[in-house]
Amino acid sequence: RGLESSLRVLILSYNFISILPRAVFSPLSELVHLDLAGNNLLDIEPDLFIQGPLRLASLNLADNLFTNIPYHELTP
């Protein structure tokens, strides 16, 4: 709480994350770099990035458990 309008880099790598709730990153309006590498993600919810962050320039999803690359969910 309190970082929503100023957080630019969020590193959540290697935290055993398996699920990301819908629009969980939406309040982070200034987020530019998001690192989710090395977690247990199997898929990406279709609405994960639907409402932002609008300035996201880099997203690291390396070393997760994807069976395919979720291009459609990442497009917005």
TrEMBL record:
<dbReference type="InterPro" id="IPR032675">
    <property type="entry name" value="LRR_dom_sf"/>
</dbReference>
<keyword id="KW-0677">Repeat</keyword>
<keyword id="KW-0433">Leucine-rich repeat</keyword>
<dbReference type="InterPro" id="IPR001611">
    <property type="entry name" value="Leu-rich_rpt"/>
</dbReference>
<dbReference type="InterPro" id="IPR003591">
    <property type="entry name" value="Leu-rich_rpt_typical-subtyp"/>
</dbReference>
<dbReference type="Pfam" id="PF13855">
    <property type="entry name" value="LRR_8"/>
</dbReference>
<protein>
    <submittedName>
        <fullName>Chaoptin-like</fullName>
    </submittedName>
</protein>
